[in-house]
Structures are given as structure tokens and as C-alpha cells.
Amino acid sequence: MGADILIRNVRPFGGEPTDLCIRDGRFARGQSEAALEIDGKGQIALPGLVEAHTHLDKTLVGMDWFENRVGPTRNDRILADRQAKRVLGIDARRQSTRQIMQTLAFGVLHIRSHVDVDTEIGIANIEGVVETRNALRDLVDVQIVAFPQSGMLVRDGTLALMQEALKAGADIVGGIDPATIERDPVRHLDAIFALADRYGKPIDIHLHEVGELGAFCIELILERTRALSLQGRVMVSHAYCLGMLEPPRQRLLLEALAAEKVAVMTVGSPSAPALPLRLMRQSGLVVASGSDGIQGTWEPWGNGDMLERAKYLAQRNGLTNDADLEETARVCTLGGAEGIGLADYGLSEGCYGDLVLVPARTLAEAVALTPQKRTVVRRGRVLVRDGVPAGDLPRVE
User: Fold this and answer.
1) Is the pTM of this model over 0.90?
2) Domains defined for the chain, CATH in brackets
3) Which residue of 40, 108, 261, 315 pairs with 10 in a disulfide if CB–CB is 3.0 to 4.6 A?
């Protein structure tokens, strides 16, 4: 726990100037004497940015450049990824630490990471990221998804490994393309929902299935969410099909997702159909976002800045007016927090004292220009001041 802090002259979400007080690690009412006082200089105040979908165990941050000669299909990438773990010596604890410390400077204080579980590596990557989570828990919140990247039913022994991963510290049951990878959407979804029910865990499913096939898989997910009363505990990641349906079908499916409180995560991928971001929000659907893989074997892109991700969402959806840019910032803060189930999140009294100050005149400008000299506070501890990390942060190997 850090010191009590009074942060003067900041504008929450770009609103009117005010002072924020952090006492005993939480936002508090009043302006009693604080051990530390910061002049916010009229900067934008946001709660800690939320990375709702990444792969901490597979980033190549800090490693040699990977010459990508991988084929164009998803299965090509999955196979190359499995090989890279052996050949490149990707250590899950080291690499997850590197990515977390890189994104900390941007103000990313909450992360949900999908971590591979398969019959070649077992749960070694889960164990590595659990170590990182424990070592850095005072700096960032990390949720771990047990993720059967290579398939679960099609690779004997993976289902048992998923159970081991949950016992070893994974927080969430992951899933992967029930039809195109698993070849049996009913059995796959029955299996992961059964795991969630048995261990009392939420679910986060990678769904790249397109068109009506994807819509059918979402309907199966909705049925099981309803049957097991898992409302508010299920997320569908990517959900490309939602950008490919005819408007009446699309609207009905969005309304059904909202009714069952199933969240959707989109990265705004330039190589996939654009999801109807404005319509999704209008439908009451919880929408989160993430960086997905950062500088990995699949793609060389990304630095993990979730404010920059908000800009990508706006660009992918053709959003240019200020109100829409502000909405993409909320997707990467409030939407992400609701999607991954964070408690006591925000800038209100009683919420955890986590925030990032962005030197911009408006929230739309913060999204469009993504200024880098940010100040990051974690429960009363200043981690980054005007873009400069605190001297007591852990060293990165």
C-alpha cells in the first residue's frame, strides 16, 4: 500500500477539473492532509487501463527478431507457435514479466491473459505466468485463462491438463473454435462449461468461426450460459461472425448476448470483419478490448498500449467524431473492467486508487494522439511520473 495522495486539478474522463484523493489505497472523499500532493495540470484522469485479451506467455518482447515465414492459415500459425516454444526458448515467466513491465508505463493495471495448455508443454506456461502474477501482484492484476490453443478434444490428454491448470492457479476456463478446430461444437462447449461449473470459474472462448457457423456457436454458448446461470461470467473473444451477419440477424444476436450478460472482446483486427461497435454498445452489450498477441510468432505488431488500442478500434469502425472516440476509451477502461469482472473499479469514492493521467486537452485527443508522458498510480503508489518509471520497480531481465 502506498502513501495517501492528493491529486489536484485533473479531469476524470475529460470532464470538469477536480481533485482526487487516495486514502488507504482507495479513492476517498475530502482533501485532508496527504503525504504526497501531485499537480495534475488539467490532465485527463482515467482508471487503470484494462488489457482484456492478451497472451503473456508467447510474447517475444526483448528477444531477437523472429523472421516470420509462417503460412497464412490459423492452423499454420498454431503449428508454428508450438514449434517456436521449443526452438526459441520462450520462457513464460520471463516473457510475461517483460510484457507486463512494458505496458505498465502506459497505465495498463489490469490484464487477462490466455495461457497455452497442451500435450507438448503441459501446464508449464500456466505455472510460469502464475509465478509472474504472484511476483508483480502489487503492481498489476493478472487473470489467467487456461487456453487449449491447439485444441482440446482433438488432442488426447488436453482436457485432463485443463483441470490441472485450474488447480495450479488458472482463473478462467478457455475455449477455442468449437467447429473448425475441435470439429464438434456441442462436445467442446459441453466440456468447457462442465469445467466452469465444476470448478466455479468464468469462461472466455476464442471464437473465430465466421458467418452463420459462428452465429450457431454463439447460440450454443448462450444456451449453456442460461442453463448454468453463468450470466456475467462468460466472454466471447473476437466473435468475427457478428460483423458478417445480415442486420436483422445481427441485431437479434446482439440483443441475446446482452440479455444473458455475455461480454464480447474485440481487438479491432484489420484482417477480420469489423464488429458493429456502436450497435453493440447501443444494444447494452458489454464490450471489452485487448492487444491479443504482442510481437509474437503470429504477428509482429503491438506494444500493449490500451489507449492506442482504443484508437485502432475507432479507425477500424470508421469513427472520427469526439463522442465516438470517447466511447472507445471507455471500452478500454470501464467496458474491459466489466467484461473481466473487476470489482471496485473506477474513479469514484471507495474504488481502488488506480489511475493514469494523460497529458491531453480532451479525451478524444488522448485517443487520437496517445500521449506517452503519463503518470500511473497504483493504490497510492506512484509507479510512473510523467513517463519516467519509479526507481523501485523490479528490474526486467
Assistant:
1) yes
2) 5-47+346-387 (2.30.40.10), 49-339 (3.20.20.140)
3) 40
CB burial string 242-276: b at 16+ within 10 A, e below: bbbbeeeebeebbebbbebbbbbbbbbbeebbbbb
Euclidean distance between CA atoms 387 and 69, whole angstroms: 36
Grid coordinates belonging to 126: 500456466
Determine contact, residues 98/61, Cβ cutoff 8 Å: yes
